[in-house]
Each structure stands twice: as structure tokens, then as C-alpha cells.
Amino acid sequence: MSSMNAAVGGDDCIVVREILSRLGDKWSVRVIHQVAGEPIRFTDLKRRFEQDSPISSRVLTRTLKQLERDGLVSRRVFPVVPPRVEYNLTELGKQFLHYAQEIVDWTIEHQNAFEAARREFEAQSAEQ
Fold this sequence. Notes:
mainly alpha, three-stranded antiparallel β-sheet, 67% helix
């Protein structure tokens, strides 16, 4: 039995669905990518998103908390006024980023095949 089939039943399935849903949302992978490397402060992280696709402070905070809860991001609070908080990837987060990059590379490598399949699908749909 493959590991995918084994995970389909029971409580494992719930965890798998939750994690894949989280990682498949609009912001999680982007946040993980931006947090990679040196520790980063919340305001600097938010500023990075402002250049490409703005994210609200509320959504960024919620995403970071969910990623922290799942063990992908760590949060370090410095006891200063005003409070200073830094985020960093955990080892689990680094491993995920590695696999995510492999998927991105695979997608780029097969981009022409995806486009050809889409053209073929659209042509067949137009004929019907």
C-alpha cells in the first residue's frame, strides 16, 4: 500500500488535509519563502510584500501564527519597548521550502506540456 493510500484513512487524513490546505492557501508559501534566510521583523516582512502583492497586517499576522502553530516558522520576542519580534524558518520550514522549490522546478520544466494539454483540452471543448 502506498503512503498516499495509507494516509487516506483515519486521523492522519485530517492532519494531512489541514496542512495541505494551509500550504495551498494564498499566502503561506509566499510567507515561508520571504521568511527564509536571516531572521526578519514583522514590518520588514510586510514591506517585502508591499512591492509585489500587498498583504494586510491582519492577514500576515494570522498566516504567521498558523505557520508557527504548525512548526514551520519560529517567533522570537525581544523584551524591549516597543516590542521587537523576529520570525525565522524552523528546520521543518526549511525542509518544506526545499520540497516546494522542487515542485516549482518541476512545474517550470513541464510548462510546455501543461500549455499543450490546455490547448488540446480547449480545442476538444470547442468541438463539442
